[in-house]
Structures are given as C-alpha cells and as structure tokens.
C-alpha cells in the first residue's frame, strides 16, 4: 500500500458494523495443506499411513519436531485478567484478542498459533494445565495476565517447560521501547549510558522495560508506581517492586512525576496515569517522551511536542508507533527456527537492535522505528534472534 493510500484508509472512520462483521465467526480457521482428494490421499494422511509416523515418534520423540505441527505452533495463553485497557474481563471476553494475536503470528511471522483462554486465575492450575497439554505446541506466548501474578507465572513456566515461553506484555513492549530509544538518542545526540530515564508504571511492562534498559547499559532509571518513585527508603514495597527499588533509582529520588522528571532525559509511560504538561516541560533539553498508554497516552502528543525533541505513542495515528507486533512474531520465529529452549536477554537485545537498524536509513524525530506493516521487520528480527541463540539454551 502506498503512503497516500495508507493515509487515506486510516482517515476513514471505522464503524461498529465493520468491526463486528470482521469478527463474526472468529478470525481463525484450520487450513489443511496436504491433499485429501482420493483414497490414496486418505491412506497416507490418516489410516493406515499415519500409524507409521506415530510409531516413529514413539521410538524417537524428536521425530515429532519434524513430522507434526507442534514445533511450529505457538500457544497464545491468557486468563483474561489484564486485557488491553479493559482490565479483568475474563477468559471468554479475552478470546477475540487472543485470536487477533494468532492472526498476527501467522501474518507477520509465518507461525501457526492457537488461542487458549483458561477459566482460572490460580498460577498453580495454569502451570499444571499447560504442562499437561504441552506436547501439543512448541512455544507459549503469555498474554494479558495481571501483575504481579504474571511474573511468577512466567518464571515458573520457563522452569517447567522445555520450550520458549514469553509474556509479551512485558518483553515485547520492552524490546520495541529499547529499539525506539536507541534511535531516539541518535536523533537528539545523546547516548544510552548517560541517560536519566523515568518509567511511569511498575507493573508488567514497566518492570520489563527497566530490566532491558539496565541490560543495555542505562544506569539511571527511576520506576514510578501510583504512590511515587520506587526507592529503598519506601517501606511499603514487596516482591518485584522491592527488588527493583534496590536495582534502580541510584540518586534515591523520592516523590512523583514532578520530582522524577525534573532534568530527566527520557519519560516512558506504560501506565494509565496522567502526566501534567508542566512536568514534561521540566525535563532536560532534547528530551524524549514515549507515552505508550492506549487509547489515552499519559500526556497528549501535541502537548509533549511543545517540549520534547522526540515523541512516540502506542497509537497508529501519530508518528513513532511503539507496537509489540514489531517484536513478538520474529522473536518466536527465530527461537523456534534455532531450536531454542529459552528466550534469553541476549535474544531480546538482538531483536531490539534489529528493529532499530531498519529505521536508521531514514532516521528523524518522526521516524525512530519502522512501521508495523514494514515487511522487512519480522525476517530481520527472526535472523537476529536465531543468531543470538546459544546451543543448549
């Protein structure tokens, strides 16, 4: 699609009728990619021929990787507790989102996937369920699971399954945010190591963004929750928040956005909070603002642009859309292509740098990441992630 045609299509309002018609009957179907037109076809694809393949797998489980779809199948799993901006709406209401995720896996990564929504929020039950059905798939994309449960669930599931597992709300967001930040600092003439970064939101996405920034070499990161900056002097912190209070905020800044943003280089919003324009105005010269909440960014992009040199959102109707679809199809495809057992920090860094590299040829304040529709993205991320896999991981 040409830029003018794409702009025209985006400007046309989307009606409720169009939305519901597009979702009627669901957005997925199973397609048979072997002929079933004759008795010979049936004998090969089903009985008696299929028994030979089953015997081979029984003798050598590794044959399942090459002769079933399991090694190319991603389970998209949710309990419906943190769906988009809708919150805890339950598994049935989350299913259209999981179908959409599966459609993106196929369209952008060439991977089959299956939505699995679970009628439980108990971490033990979710793990037991997925372990029991794990012979049916080759990777797990956790989706829309509320914090702090999502941290324990991902950690324990990685330990329990011999396959790639990733909570995309955490790590997909973090990968694309890092890619965007690596290019934004080039636009403003700064470097990652010297940045003062403020992250609004200490939930799943905020913690993951902080982690990948620390891994990439950013040392001055402040995380904010609803009560203000995380720091070791706060006595109301436990779990992941207490851990990251000890690993971040080296200047021990206390207070809220007013105190944290004064002189800061970067603001990354991954919460539903609102940040006053005057707090953005107090940031350092050449500041960078990523207001990623949807549908309402933490600060209006037009207000942020009055003070910041680079502004990004999670929306498609503003420049610099930071969208997880830039990351997760290629991350999973690369991991599965390379036979990886885990998705490691090195693989996430490789994904971020591959995404960033695709925008370098036309880099500007309004173009720090490629479009989610750029056909180069998934192949580039796939190759970078596969190259970062260490055999045995």
In brief:
With 393 residues, this protein is α/β, with parallel strands linked by helices. The protein contains 17 helices and ten strands.
Would you kindly provide a written description of the structure presented here, covering whatever features stand out?
This protein is an alpha/beta fold. It has two domains: 27-170, Rossmann fold; 171-336 and 347-393, NAD(P)-binding Rossmann-like Domain (Rossmann fold). It contains 17 helices and ten strands. The strands form two sheets. The chain has a six-stranded mixed β-sheet with strand order 7-6-5-8-9-10. Helix 6 (91-109) crosses helix 15, helix 9 (168-188) packs across helix 16 (345-359) and helix 16 runs antiparallel to helix 17 (377-388). The longest helix has 21 residues, at 168-188.
The run of helices and strands is HHHHHEHEHEHEHEHEEHHEHEHEHHH
Helix content: 40-55%
Could you name the ranges where pLDDT drops below 50 across 5 or more consecutive residues?
A: 1-9
C-alpha geometry? globular
CATH C-level class of the largest domain: Alpha Beta
What's the CATH superfamily of the largest domain, by name?
NAD(P)-binding Rossmann-like Domain
Strands of the widest sheet, in order across it, are 7-6-5-8-9-10
Largest sheet: 6 strands, mixed
Rg, Å, rounded: 22 Å
State the end-to-end distance.
40 Å
Mean pLDDT, rounded to whole units?
Answer: 93
């Amino acid at each position: 699609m040409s830029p003018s045609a794409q702009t025209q299509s985006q400007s046309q309002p989307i009606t409720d009728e169009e939305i519901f018609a597009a979702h009627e009957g669901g957005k997925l179907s199973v397609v048979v990619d072997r002929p079933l037109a004759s008795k010979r076809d049936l004998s090969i694809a089903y009985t008696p021929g299929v028994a030979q393949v089953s015997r081979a797998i029984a003798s050598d489980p590794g044959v399942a990787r090459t002769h079933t779809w399991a090694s190319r199948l991603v389970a998209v799993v949710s309990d419906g507790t943190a769906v988009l901006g809708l919150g805890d709406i339950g598994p049935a209401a989350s299913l259209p989102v999981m179908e959409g995720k599966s459609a993106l896996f196929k369209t952008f990564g060439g991977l089959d996937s299956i939505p699995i929504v679970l009628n439980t929020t108990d971490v033990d039950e979710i793990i037991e369920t997925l372990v029991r059905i794990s012979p049916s798939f080759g990777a797990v994309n956790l989706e829309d699971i509320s914090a702090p449960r999502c941290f324990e669930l991902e950690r324990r599931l990685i330990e329990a399954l011999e396959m790639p597992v990733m909570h995309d709300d955490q790590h997909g967001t973090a990968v694309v945010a890092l890619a965007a930040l690596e290019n934004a600092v080039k636009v403003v003439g700064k470097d990652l190591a010297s940045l003062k970064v403020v992250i609004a939101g200490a939930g799943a996405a905020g913690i993951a963004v902080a982690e990948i920034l620390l891994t990439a070499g950013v040392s001055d990161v402040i995380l904010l929750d609803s009560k203000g900056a995380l720091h070791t002097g706060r006595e109301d912190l436990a779990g992941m928040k207490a851990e990251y209070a000890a690993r971040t905020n080296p200047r021990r800044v206390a207070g809220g956005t007013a105190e944290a943003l004064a002189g800061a280089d970067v603001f990354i919003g991954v919460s539903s909070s609102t940040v006053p324009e005057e707090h953005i105005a107090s940031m350092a010269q050449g500041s960078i603002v990523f207001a990623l909440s949807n549908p309402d960014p933490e600060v209006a992009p037009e207000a942020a642009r009055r003070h910041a040199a680079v502004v990004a959102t999670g929306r498609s109707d503003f420049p610099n859309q930071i969208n997880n679809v830039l990351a997760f199809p290629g991350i999973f495809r690369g991991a599965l292509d390379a036979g990886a057992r885990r998705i490691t920090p090195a693989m996430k860094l490789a994904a971020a740098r591959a995404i960033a590299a695709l925008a370098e040829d036309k880099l500007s304040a309004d173009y720090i990441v490629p479009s989610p529709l750029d056909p180069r993205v998934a192949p580039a991320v796939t190759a970078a992630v596969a190259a970062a896999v260490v055999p045995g991981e």
